[in-house]
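Final report, Chapter 2: Outcomes

The project's central promise was a pipeline that accepts a single protein chain and returns its three-dimensional structure in a standardized token representation, suitable for archiving and comparison. That pipeline is now operational. To close this chapter, we reproduce one record exactly as it appears in the project archive, with the input sequence first and the structure output second.
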Amino acid sequence: MKDLKVINKLDNLKKLREERNITQVKLSVDLGISQELISRYELGTSFPQPNMLIKLSEYFNCSVDYLLGLTDISTPIKYLVSNSDTIKSTELYRKYNSLSTSDKKYFDRFLSFLLDNSKKE
């Protein structure tokens, strides 16, 4: 079997860290590792052991696949498989967020129309 993607860095680690306003220093202290190691993970000059991947995914409440850049869905799989409605909701939310502002208004009005009609039935 031929691998299509060689993973040599954590594509979304820096993104997650910055979204949560966490410095490399804070993350390193929280995980009990050096700031330099966090930097190397983000740059791809070092790759974490499996137990550290799990620790990072638990810290950020995301899947290991998301950390590795294998998926755009950050929700951990244990939440996705426990409720198939979550998958549908996540997909709907992703699609909604990709709409323009004016299209979101149309969508919201259409959804209100559908909900109003379902109450009448």
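Archive annotation: DSSP finds eight helices and no strands in the chain.
This record, like all others produced under the grant, will remain available to the consortium after the project formally closes.
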